[in-house]
C-alpha cells in the first residue's frame, strides 16, 4: 500500500476516535450527574436537620455561597 493510503487511514481513525470519545464522555457525565446530583439548598437543609441544627434561610444562603466560592477557587 502506498503512503498516502496509510495517512488517510490514520486520519480517519483519529477522527472516529475523537467523535466516539466525545459521545462516550458525554454519556458518562450524564449518568454521573444523574447518580450524583450537585448539592442544592434542600439537600443542605436536610443535612443540617439530620445533624440537629435548625437551618435558617440566611444560614443556607451563606453555606451555598461558601460552597460556590470554594468550587470557583479550585478551578
TrEMBL record:
Source organism, top-level taxon: Bacteria
Chief location bin: membrane
InterPro entries named among the record's database cross-references: UPF0154
Mode of membrane association: Single-pass membrane protein
Swiss-Prot/TrEMBL keywords: Cell membrane, Membrane, Transmembrane, Transmembrane helix
Locations listed in the record: Cell membrane; Membrane
Pfam family, one: UPF0154
Any one GO CC term of the record: plasma membrane
Entry's transmembrane regions: 6-25
Family named by the database record: Belongs to the UPF0154 family.
Protein name: UPF0154 protein FEZ51_04240
Species this protein is from: Pediococcus stilesii
Amino acid at each position: 500500500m502506498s503512503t498516502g493510503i496509510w495517512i488517510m487511514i490514520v486520519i480517519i481513525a483519529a477522527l472516529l476516535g475523537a467523535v466516539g470519545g466525545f459521545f462516550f464522555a458525554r454519556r458518562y457525565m450524564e449518568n454521573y450527574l444523574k447518580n450524583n446530583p450537585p448539592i442544592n439548598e434542600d439537600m443542605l437543609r436536610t443535612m443540617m436537620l439530620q445533624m440537629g441544627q435548625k437551618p435558617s434561610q440566611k444560614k443556607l444562603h451563606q453555606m451555598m455561597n461558601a460552597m460556590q466560592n470554594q468550587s470557583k477557587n479550585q478551578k
